[in-house]
Amino acid sequence: MNTNPSTEYLMRYSKSELVRMLLSEARDKLSKPDLLMDVISKSLRKYQFATVEYFIAITIDGMGIPIRTHDIGKGTMDHVTVSPRDVFRAALLDNACSVIVLHNHPSGNISPSGDDSEITRRMVQAGSIIGIELLDHVIIGPNAQYFSYSESASVEFKEFGARH
Fold first, then answer.
1. pLDDT tens, 112-137?
2. Quick one: which of 12, 98, 106 has its CA closest to 58?
3. pTM, to two decimals
4. Fold that domain 5-152 belongs to in CATH
5. Does residue 137 or residue 159 have the better pLDDT?
6. What one-character DSSP code corresponds to residue 143?
7. What gap in Å lies between CA 57 and CA 89, rounded to an integer?
8. Which of 4, 11, 13, 55 shows the greatest Cβ crowding within 10 Å of its Cβ?
């Protein structure tokens, strides 16, 4: 599919504007999941109400400040395929110290699936090996509903924000 140059420019501008909004509202450290969700509910609304699943990574610097958001994957209405390699490639390119991943559940049911838990465990392990900590995996739904793995303790994380 070919797009004209002005459409490509607008798409890039919109994405950079979204990142700018996210970062300007998150000047403080992302020290707990509800602060993250305050930022996300304002800036990333398209993911909350999307009809397909998206997987997003937010890279974090050594002070706990967000560097950038990355669209890691786009799937179907009930599945998105991602690999720890995709998440940590973005983190390495941003020279990040940690990362938070999110994905949406278009159904509105924010309960994690077995696949959600498995990919979270794999990302915790991969991050541990390469020295980039996975701070949380958050599942978002409409109306600012969310499930946080770090809050639920269903996967072992270090205390959210403790490093910063």
1. 999 999 999 999 999 999 999 999 99
2. 98
3. 0.73
4. Cytidine Deaminase; domain 2 (3.40.140)
5. 137
6. G
7. 11
8. 55
